[in-house]
Amino acid sequence: MNTPLQLQVKHWLENDPDPATQAQLQTLLDTQNEAELKARFAGRLEFGTAGLRGVVGAGPMGMNRLVIRQTSAGLGAYLLEQIKDAAERGVVIGYDGRHDSRTFAHDTASVLTAMGFKVRITSKVAPTPLVAFGVKHFNAAAGIVVTASHNPPQYNGYKVYWENGAQIIPPHDSGIAAQIERAANQAIPFLEHDDAVKQGKLILLLDDFYQTYRSGIKQSPMLQNHTATEKVSLAYTAMHGVGADMAETVLKDAGFNQVYSVAAQREPNGDFPTVNFPNPEEKGAMDLVIAEAKKHGAMLACANDPDADRFAVAVHKGAGEYQMLTGDQVGVLLGHYLLSHAPEHRGLTGTTIVSSSLLSKIAKGFGQQSYTTLTGFKWLMNVGIVKNQPENPFLFAYEEALGYTVGSMVWDKDGLSALVAFAQLTAELAANGQTIWDRLEHIYREHGFHLNAQVSIALKPDTPKIGAYLREHPPLKIGELDVLSTDDLKALERRFADGRVEKIDLPPSDVLTYCLAGGARVIVRPSGTEPKIKCYYEVVEPMTADDTLISAQNRATQAMEAFIAAHQASLPK
């Protein structure tokens, strides 16, 4: 007798177009592995503002060809409902170098062309920023990138851009998810590749498209500083991703000829054989590019993540040693550099609530506005698009997780333009006999040494709901520091110690921010599902005339350790 679960699995098998995932499920049925089947059919892989991301495997909880087809049918239905001329304006599709990415991208194209959409698909792997660029360039109704960015090899993902060229935000995520649910219970339209090409519905984006993006970087007003490029040497890694060809090309276009790519990591490889985790933030991921930099005595060791939307850099600090910059340090260096070069130093900069507050102080020093959003580039860019005005043009935004965007050519993070901008900053400093460390010290002397740290704190299962507890028992001090104001993004209110209350203009989110005497700050993000919280700390240490960068950093590190300990001691046990 068939159980409801077995019937569900058999129905899925009848619709699954992939012999490999069919075989996986059939083996689970044959061996009566009910626990694994239950896990694979426990629901659907959730579609959210980041699209889909999950482990490749059979069933509705995995990334596979049937899930991709159902998702594409749901997305297509939502686009037709929401955007006038969506089918004619069409969709741009690109994909990274993971094993299933090309197949998933072409399945997506076949579903959307069958629904009447004009689809432009990259003819080969493409960095994610090129697809975001393509949405604007072609005035498309949407863009899709099949990528799992810097996740481990077993993952893949499906990232969606809206017609404005930025990642989707609510309510589009829930609207698309609802249409996917409907599509999952219907026959999925499908037009074979060759038929779609014959009917003029599928257009392959050949080299001229890649060259258009390249020209955009070459001509960007923010990337025209060609001072002393011959003074800069850098090692580069694509981390087994898709960035190398374009990264090397745009660096050469900008006049950087001493570029040494890590050969072992240059070509796309979905197994990521030389790194435990293909994320430049992870320990050991930068080892090979730093070794390449040492070999050539290069100033910089630079990396893109596998889909080239993030940028990381380690900087030579003497005696053959290199030190990684934090995402915040790269962000404030680029923000300061770009503001100092913008016409009349004008330009809008932005960052997120959990990134350093230093960029806003730098912008203020230049007499410019800076904006702050919820965490995630989707918010940074959607707000940036709204605020981008002729009298106050968008210049730069970043988040601490190595995401940067320079100018408005791409409304998403772009590790390629960030790479060029950082090389140009380094060259200008070298022409004046200075280093990146000198510039950081200059910024810190003016605004204070800003140190940021992130800590996840596991609480006991019987600990009171942390968000509710903190709202009911608002702290007046953390350690020895007075709380000057509290931002409650659930209530969208800023409460000052003197009783004043201001409204906050952000989407609601379960986040509390405490600003303390001396410029310190802690942001608390309670987990809605587990007894744990994420805390983001910032301390600011003024630099005295006698301070060096190292002495200020040591003092800030001590202050940070004491601050974290005091804050954790104040939480309910």
Q: What's the gist of this structure?
A:
38% of the residues lie in helices and 21% in strands. By secondary structure, it is α/β, with parallel strands linked by helices.
Protein topology:
Elements (H helix, E strand, L loop, with lengths): L3 H12 L3 H12 L3 H7 L11 E4 L9 H18 L3 H4 L1 E5 L5 H14 L4 E4 L5 H10 L4 E5 L8 E7 L10 H12 L9 H6 L3 E4 L1 H13 L13 E5 L6 H10 L4 E4 L25 H10 L3 E5 L6 E6 L5 E3 L2 H15 L6 E5 L5 H8 L4 E4 L3 H11 L6 E6 L3 E4 L8 H17 L4 H12 L1 E10 L7 H7 L4 E2 L2 E8 L4 E4 L4 E3 L8 E5 L4 E6 L5 E10 L7 H22 L3
Parallel strand pairs: 2-3, 2-4, 3-6, 7-8, 7-9, 12-13, 12-14
Antiparallel strand pairs: 1-5, 4-5, 9-10, 10-11, 14-15, 16-23, 17-18, 18-19, 18-21, 19-20, 21-22, 22-23
Report the sheet-strand fraction: 15-25%
The low-confidence runs, each spanning 5 or more residues with pLDDT under 50, are none
Number of strands: 23
Q: What can be said about the biggest beta sheet?
A: 8 strands, antiparallel
**Could you report the average pLDDT, rounded to the nearest whole number?**
95
Estimated radius of gyration:
25 Å
Task: Please tell me the CATH architecture of the largest domain by its name.
Answer: 3-Layer(aba) Sandwich
At the fourth level of CATH, the homologous superfamily of the largest domain is Alpha-D-Glucose-1,6-Bisphosphate, subunit A, domain 3
Keywords for this entry:
six-stranded mixed beta sheet; eight-stranded antiparallel beta sheet; alpha/beta; 573 residues; Alpha-D-Glucose-1,6-Bisphosphate, Chain A, domain 3; Alpha-D-Glucose-1,6-Bisphosphate, Chain A, domain 4; 19 helices; 3 domains
